[in-house]
Design goal:
globular; 223 residues; 11 helices; mainly alpha; MetI-like fold
């Protein structure tokens, strides 16, 4: 494996780790609200969060590119703050990946929260626990298997992204060239041996992820 491949692997791991952390921070409150609310907005918001599951990655990438471009709201905001624009940067990959992988984190956590039921929270309330105390000391520990599943899925899905990251980040070695784009680059230049090494590693990684998920299901009904 040459230096450019190792750089792509490291960039992918760094991107997936950062995106997973952000997804857990953003996705957990959304999942909690979706699991507990009776608002009429639950359906529209749930559909909006789930949209990346059915939307072609290039479509999402195209609209994110317009949103973050020089004439988009995010682009104009970055210009007014004197900051670098997001397209074709690592920060842009992070933002796009958070949007694209959000349902893979929200749905398992939402299912875990819904599986808890009302009794544990009612018991905590009867002991004069505040809503915040109930959330952090009761709901989160009971939902831990679902949160672990969400973290694994979010990380794995970010590692395997192609369409969105190519639209937003392009193919800049050492900056936005992630593993999936590097494989595509090798195939385009007919360097099949190098592509086999990286693609084979992705197959093994995907198998291990699925093995962890299916192994965890035997231990918890919430995964």
């Amino acid at each position: 494996m040459d230096a450019s491949s190792l750089a792509a692997v490291w960039l992918t791991i760094k991107l997936a780790a950062l995106v997973t952390a952000l997804l857990l921070l953003v996705g957990t409150p959304i999942a909690w609200w979706l699991a507990r609310t009776r608002s009429i907005l639950k359906g529209p918001l749930g559909a909006l969060v789930t949209l990346p599951l059915v939307l072609p990655p290039t479509v999402l990438g195209f609209y994110l590119l317009l949103f973050m471009g020089p004439h988009g709201p995010a682009g104009r905001l970055m210009d007014s703050l004197g900051l670098a624009r997001l397209p074709f940067s690592f920060a842009g990959l992070v933002v796009a990946s958070v949007f694209y992988s959000l349902p893979f984190v929200v749905q398992p956590i939402q299912n875990a929260f819904e599986a808890i039921g009302k009794r544990p929270l009612e018991a905590a309330a009867s002991l004069r626990a505040s809503p915040w105390d109930s959330f952090f000391t009761v709901a989160l520990p009971l939902a831990r298997p679902g949160i672990l599943t969400a973290a694994i899925l979010g990380f794995a899905h970010t590692v395997g992204e192609f369409g969105v990251v190519l639209m937003i980040g392009g193919n800049i070695p050492g900056k936005t060239q992630v593993l999936s784009v590097k494989i595509f680059d090798y195939v385009e230049t007919m360097e099949y041996a190098q592509a086999h090494w990286l693609a084979g590693g992705m197959v093994c990684f995907s198998f291990l992820v699925l093995l962890c998920l299916y192994g965890g299901r035997k231990k918890s009904p919430w995964i």
